Amino acid sequence: MKVDHIRPQDIENTSMQIIREELAQMGKEIPAELAPVVMRVIHTTADFEYADTMAFSPCAIEKAREAIRSGARIVTDTNMALAGVNKKALAKWGGETICFMADPEVAEEASARGITRAAVSMERAAALDGPTIFAIGNAPTALLTLRELIDTKGYKPALIIGVPVGFVNVVNAKEQIMETQIPWIVNRGRKGGSGVAAAICNAILYGM
Amino acid sequence: MKVDHIRPQDIENTSMQIIREELAQMGKEIPAELAPVVMRVIHTTADFEYADTMAFSPCAIEKAREAIRSGARIVTDTNMALAGVNKKALAKWGGETICFMADPEVAEEASARGITRAAVSMERAAALDGPTIFAIGNAPTALLTLRELIDTKGYKPALIIGVPVGFVNVVNAKEQIMETQIPWIVNRGRKGGSGVAAAICNAILYGM
């Protein structure tokens, strides 16, 4: 048995063609401007349910790209999502990726205040100058903290990607973000994850 | 609106209880020794389909734990999976996590030989002394290379976690691993991913 010599780009193109065909067979129609994001999420999960559950505020992708063109950073709530975002593609526009979750000071502050590290991480990110995109694939408390900062401090992130996965507080936290006037991309329901958050960032970057 | 003060461990316990109840409602019975792994994958994906598709060679989990007790390393095929494995839990037994994918020498060799970086990464890992667990969530060519090393060089990994996600070559690559006499944990079909690979590693570690 010999390992085939396959070019990664060919595999991706073939995969996207299969996804396109199967979506058509299922009768799922995705607006052209959203399709690259939805399809990359399906590519990352092999789960076609995302075609039904992903939701976007008006012009969310275009607004995210404008923010990236002006040097927006991407803040994640896990080191996994951080590892998954294409840093070279973001650096081309001057942006960088940040995750505060493993910072010992964040852990200390969270413990002292009796809140989650994700909540403290969001506060730290919100204190930074310049446009910020949040890619949240894990912690519903990250989304709830962002909602609180938006409501009480007038904080305006460039985009919130709200795709935590889970069984407790996740559905509600996503709805809290969908009620804001901030640009958002959310996967309704329980599904999501760090890989999904990174895939959405990369789909936005690759279409620029 | 105030962010609730929720303890992560409470959320996880509640989530696992919900998963247990819903599995029971669906009539899905999972053998007790496999349940911690299958349930952690469902916890990571919110996708109950894994209860039907995950497969294990005889005593795979117990053999993996024996290997970890003797200091096994965990080799991943993505930096995302690397970021997701609980390194503290592994270090307690003397093991470390490794991923060769971002090594510039690996990229050069792959390009020169016209094979994937994942294939070169597996060869490098297989050349290391001592027990090795492979956690493959992305590249089918990683699995095909391991199969080749097993067949032609008599290579004996301690465990292969074969859960690449995707639409091209993925299903076959998983089957190639299931035909070996090496301990394996595989998710049949298209689904999987770096998060799933890390979740399986962590479930093994947390049960020790």
Give a quick rundown of the structure.
Two copies of one chain form a homodimer. Chain A has 208 residues and is of the alpha/beta class.
- Whole-number radius of gyration of chain A? 17 Å
Query: End-to-end distance of chain A, in Å?
Result: 41 Å
Mean pLDDT across the residues of chain A is 96
Total strand count of chain A, please? 6
User: What is the general shape of chain A?
Assistant: globular
Q: Oligomeric status of the shown chains? A: homodimer
Which protein chains are joined by the largest interface, and how many residues does each one contribute? A-B, 47 and 47 residues
Helicity level of chain A, as a percent range? 40-55%
Computed structural class of chain A: alpha/beta
Task: Describe the protein.
- 2 copies of one chain form a homodimer.
- The first copy, chain A, has helices spanning 8-25, 35-45, 50-53, 60-69, 79-84, 87-91, 104-113, 117-126, 140-153, 170-178, 194-206, and strands at 54-56, 73-76, 97-98, 132-136, 159-162, 184-187.
- Chain A is of the alpha/beta class and 208 residues long.
- The longest helix of chain A has 18 residues, at 8-25.
- In chain A, 49% of the residues are buried.
- Chains A and B meet through helix 1, helix 2, helix 5, helix 9 and helix 11 of A and helix 1, helix 2, helix 5, helix 9 and helix 11 of B.
Describe how the helices and strands are arranged.
The structure is a homodimer of 208-residue chains.
Chain A (H helix, E strand, L loop, with lengths): L7 H18 L9 H11 L4 H4 E3 L3 H10 L3 E4 L2 H6 L2 H5 L5 E2 L5 H10 L3 H10 L5 E5 L3 H14 L5 E4 L7 H9 L5 E4 L6 H13 L2
Helix pairs in contact in A: 1-2, 2-11, 7-8, 8-9, 9-10
